[in-house]
Amino acid sequence: MRAIQYLGVNTVKLTGVARPVPEPGHALVRVQAAGICQTDVHVRASSVEMIPAGTILGHEIAGTVAEINAPDSLLAVGGQVVVHPVWSCGVCRMCVAGRENACRNTAGRSSPAPTPGVSVNGGLAEYVSVPVSALVPADGLDPAFAAVLPDAGLVPFHSLNAVRDLLRPGSTAVVIGIGGLGQFAVQLIRELTGARIIAMDVRTESLDVVAGQVDRTLLSTDPDAAAKVLAATGGYGADFVLDLVGNSATLRLAGAIVAPYGAIRVPGLSDGVFEFETSQLQTTLPWGASLTRPYSGTHQELHDLVALAQAGRISANLVRYSFDDALSAIDDLEQGKVRGRAVVVLDS
Ligand SMILES: [Zn+2]
Ligand SMILES: [Zn+2]
């Protein structure tokens, strides 16, 4: 079968590999579509092997069940599914509490559970073998849209769910970074809370995409950006700051605009450094504010997100590529040319 494989430092190629045989507990998924993410760009651009050489990329996967090697599974062959990218154990105390993204058996302190396309073979291929426990039914969705839910949709959804009590009518949410994830974040905040939304990005074109859905747009490079957010919130700051960029400049901005007891969430990978000060005179965070790094999302959240999508309550700006053109998708994303989420759609 055709696959997009990471072959070592700076090397990603379209190759031919054997079709996987599902091990016990796995299903074989015939891939219909697979999203391309900044993670794929990072993996290819890195001067060290961030992931094992030979790994098939693709952690945003939608497809149909082709074969099931799990006799007790209630999944139907032929059914449409999306793949939860957190292949956790399902039995540890975090997993049974519905916190698969903090699994005690398959994840380490700073390494997550097995992730398709990162630590095990992913879905930028015609077929992928997936634990049945990671499959979420997604019937009736456009496969290209379904494919982006498990990462571009799930990541902002998880960050938002953890701070829902802060987001009420009258409160303010700031989303920094309006790419594929940021566009989902804006829709989810609108759909699920009554909060006012301020969108920030370094590019006017990115802000234009969500201008009709938010209360205000601001260039994050505007030297008065922080002052404008404070002025818009009575000097108090934003209750929720979702920093989807995570570099040192956006982290500093997030600290400067978050409200006391507000929440900064930084779910992405970047190279940012946040200076934590405890001085009364010069503070990087107001009293009570929290900053955390949420990881991916839970299995239940992916179910909820699919339900929102099936109800027609969320959508995505998709930039579609054919499988033979998958490498151009990574190039375009690297060069900042994609205004939405890049998805590789497989011909049937
Ligand atoms: Zn990703
Ligand atoms: Zn577990």
Describe what you observe in this structure.
- This protein is an alpha/beta fold and 348 residues long.
- It folds into two domains: 2-151 and 296-345, Medium-chain alcohol dehydrogenases, catalytic domain (Quinone Oxidoreductase, Chain A, domain 1, Alpha-Beta Complex), CATH 3.90.180; 163-292, NAD(P)-binding Rossmann-like Domain (Rossmann fold, 3-Layer(aba) Sandwich).
- The chain is 26% helix and 25% strand.
- It is built from nine helices and 15 strands.
- The chain has helices at 38-45, 93-96, 143-161, 180-192, 204-210, 225-232, 248-257, 299-310, 326-334; strands at residues 2-8, 11-16, 26-36, 60-68, 80-83, 127-131, 135-137, 172-176, 196-201, 216-219, 238-243, 258-265, 290-292, 318-322, 341-345.
- The strands form three sheets. Strands 3, 4, 5, 6, 7, 14 and 15 form a seven-stranded mixed sheet that branches. Strands 10-9-8-11-12-13 form a six-stranded parallel sheet, sandwiched between helices. Strands 1-2 form a two-stranded antiparallel ribbon.
- Helix 3 packs across helix 4 (180-192), helix 3 packs across helix 8 (299-310) and helix 6 packs parallel to helix 7.
- The model has no long low-confidence stretch (mean pLDDT 95).
- Residues 37, 39, 59, 151 line the site of one zinc ion (ZN).
